[in-house]
C-alpha cells in the first residue's frame, strides 16, 4: 500500500459491506458453536445433545451461557467504544469514559459491603450496580448539558471527575470492609464472565441488541459527528438530539453489561481501532463489524481464561490485555502508511 | 419576490458580549460576495447565523422567505452549505468519503445511490481532487484538504455556499485555484466567502461586505468599497489603491 497509489478504500458498496460484515459474523458464529465444546472436562457432543448427564449439564448450564454472555458483552463493549470514540472525537474514549462502569462498581461494592443477597430472586449486586450506573449517567449528562446543548468537552471532564469520585468511594468502602468482603470486592472489580441464567441473558440481549441496532441504523450520522458538530449540522443532522441518544444508547449498554460482568477493559478501546486500521472509518461497516469481532474476541479470551490454567481461572481482563495488546502493536507496526491513531 | 437571503437587524450575543449587531443586508444569486473586516469583527458569526448554526440570533434572518431557525435541518442543508474555518479529522476517512458526506441530506438507505456517486464524481472533477480520492484525508496537504472540503459542499448541490476563510494558510497556487472554482460556481449560486485577503476579495467578488465591531459598515462593489480611506479607517493600515482592469489593487504600507 503506497501513499500515492490508486484507491485504497473505495466508497462503500454493498459488496464490500457484506463481505466485511459476513466475515466478522462468521467469526462470532464460529465462537458460538465451537467454544462451548472447549474446556477442561471432555464432553461428547452427541451425549450432550441427547441430554445425558453430565455432558448436557456442562454444555448447556455451564459453558453455553458463559459463551453467550461473553459474546453479548464483547459485542456491546466494542460497539459502545466505537460510538464514543466518534462522538467525543477522542481516540482514547472507551465505553467507560463517561463513568458508568465506576458507577456500576460503586453500586456493586455497596451491595457487597452491606451483605445484600438477592432481591426478588435477582442478585442484589446486579440491581445496585445498575442503579449506580444510572445515577452516574444522569449526573454526568446533567453536568454537561447547558440548557439543551451538550458539550462533548464538558462531558469528558465530567466523566473523568465522576470516575475519580466513584473510585475513591470504592477504596473508602473497601478499606473498612471485612476480609472476605474485601476479597469479593476485588474479584468483582477484576471483572469476569460467569455462567448466568438464561433469563438474565435474555434481559441483557433485550437491552443490547436494540441499542446496537440503533447504532448501526444511525451509522451515517456518526460519520459526520466524528468529523465535527458544525460539519454534521450543516449537512442536515440534528446534532444535539443524536449526540444525546448516542451517549444514552452506549451508556445503557455499558452500564447493563457491567452490572453482570464487572468492568472488562481493553475490548471497547482496542477492537474499534484494530477494525479502523483494516476497514477505514466508515461507521456503516465499522459498527456491525465491531459488534461481531468484539463478541468473538471476548468469547475467545474468556475461553482461554477458563482453560489455560484450569482448574484455576484467570481474570478475563488479563487475557484481553495480554493477547490483544501485542496483536494491536503488531497491527500498528505492519501498516506502514498508518499515520497515527 | 424577495431576495434569497434577507437579513434584518441580525445580532448575536455570546457570553454577554455582543459580537454581531443590527446587520441588515439582502443577498441574491448568482453573486460572489466577499466578507472582510478585522479579527473579531463578527464575520464568522454572521456566516454561522446564515448557515443555521446559531439559532439564537436576534432580528430576522430569512432564507427563501422563511426564518433560518425555523427551517428543518435536512431540507435547509440541500439549499445552503457551509465550510467551517478549520477542520481536524481524527479518523481515517478517505478523501472520497469526506466528499460523500456532502450527500447526507439526500441519503436515506444504507448505501449511496448512483445519483449520489455521480454528484461526488462531478464535484471531485470540478475541484481536481479525483487523483487522490482514495487517500487518507489526514495525509493530504493543506491545499488538497481544502479542495476536498470544497468538493464535499459542491456534492451537496446547494444554492448557497458559505465559506469561512477558505484559503487561509494556503499557498498562492491553491488560493487562486480555490477562488477560480468559487468564481465559476458563482455563475449559478450565491457564494459568500469570509477572507482576510483584500486583493482576493477585489479580484474575484462582485460585492464586498465590510464588518467592524459586529456591525456592517460598507456594502458595495469592490471598486467602491476598497479605497485607501476605508482601509485606513477599518483596518488601521495605510495603503495605496490602484486600478487594474476596473478592479482595485491594494498596495500596503504606502
List keywords for this structure.
heterodimer; A: 341 residues; mainly alpha; two-stranded antiparallel sheet; two-stranded antiparallel ribbon; disordered C terminus; B: 254 residues; Rossmann fold; 6-stranded mixed beta sheet; 4-stranded antiparallel beta sheet; globular
General description of the model:
The complex is a heterodimer of chains A (341) and B (254). Chain A has a single domain, classed as ABC transporter involved in vitamin B12 uptake, BtuC (Orthogonal Bundle). The N terminus and C terminus of chain A are likely disordered. Helix content of chain A is 72%, strand content 2%. In chain A, a hairpin with a 2-residue loop joins strand 3 and strand 4. Chain A is globular. Chain A has a two-stranded antiparallel ribbon. Chain A has a two-stranded antiparallel sheet with strand order 3-4. With 341 residues, chain A is mainly alpha-helical. In chain A, helix 5 packs antiparallel against helix 11 and helix 8 packs antiparallel against helix 13. Chain B is of the alpha/beta class. Chain B has a single domain, classed as Rossmann fold (3-Layer(aba) Sandwich), CATH 3.40.50. Chain B contains nine helices and twelve strands. In chain B, strands 6-7-8-3-9-10 form a six-stranded mixed beta sheet, with helices on both faces. A four-stranded antiparallel beta sheet of chain B has the order 2-1-4-5, covered by helices on one side. A two-stranded antiparallel sheet of chain B has the order 11-12. Chain B is globular, with a radius of gyration of 18 Å. Classes of the chains: A mainly alpha (341), B alpha/beta (254).
Number of domains of chain B: 1
Widest beta sheet: strand line-up of chain B: 6-7-8-3-9-10
Instruction: Count up the helices of chain B.
Output: 9
Q: Biggest sheet of chain A: strands, sense, closure?
A: 2 strands, antiparallel
Beginning-to-end CA distance, first to last residue of chain B: 45 Å
Second CATH tier, the architecture of chain B: 3-Layer(aba) Sandwich
The low-pLDDT segments of chain B are none
**Total beta strand runs of chain A:** 4
What is Rg of chain B? 18 Å
Q: What strand order characterises the main sheet of chain A?
A: 1-2
The CATH superfamily of chain B bears the name P-loop containing nucleotide triphosphate hydrolases
